[in-house]
Amino acid sequence: MLKRGIAAALATVMALGLTACGEKPQDTKTGDSKTPATPTGFVEAKVEPDNFDSGVELKPDCYRFIYALGNAPATIDAAKYFKMRLEQESDGALSCDIYTDNVLGSERELLEGCQFGNYDIVLATNATVASFSNDIFCLDIPWLYDNKQQVYEVLDGVLGDTLAAGLEDKGFKLLQFQENSFRTLTTSDRKVEKVSDLKGLKIRIMENELQLAQWKSYGANPTPMAFTELFTALQQHTVDGQDNWCGVNMADKVL
């Protein structure tokens, strides 16, 4: 029997509390020349296939997984790459149908559907996953890391294994952590240059208790809301701004 799965997508800021790009390794001087410091742990390898065609003919009895996710370009490309490699590695015995733009429901609905076996793979932000497994809340604690390198090493280590075990107790199988990008605050008409500028600002946030407490501590008026409701809320001025990651802002023109 196939195990149902969940791939928890980490929007780097959303998941890890960073607000700027990771620090570059400091140069170490050797005589008159500069040699970049050697990074430790995981080093990113960028994969850019010309297209996502696996080149494999699917078998007549090919099992097709249901892969549901949102509309962020990076995560959609990752899903397509997963599909390509799945077909190649299984020699056409396995594939997946990818459903984007939350057409099958909100993140919470997708995760519930995954629990009940309606969907095989769901790519969801950890902020939403945390409502199913409280241990995941630790990823939303702000200012934990200095750079992305530290994040990779931690999630590929004991903490990542512990979080995966907790999700398995809730009926999920963690397939991967995936980075989106850094979290950003955008507003309709107010500049935010210091913490006091947040006072009373109505901000759409994810449905996550820790993020709610965080923004309240800054003096803002956070409003938990599913992403599918955001556009209407901005148009009707139910919220003044939103906390999201920059890739979504650009893709959906909500800057």
TrEMBL record:
This is 2,3-diketo-L-gulonate-binding periplasmic protein YiaO. One of its GO terms (molecular function) is carbohydrate binding. Coiled coil: none annotated. The keyword Cell membrane does not apply. It comes from Anaerotignum propionicum DSM 1682. Residues 1-20 form the signal peptide. GO terms for biological process: transmembrane transport. It comes from the Bacteria. Keywords: Receptor, Signal. Gene3D superfamilies: Bacterial extracellular solute-binding protein, family 7.
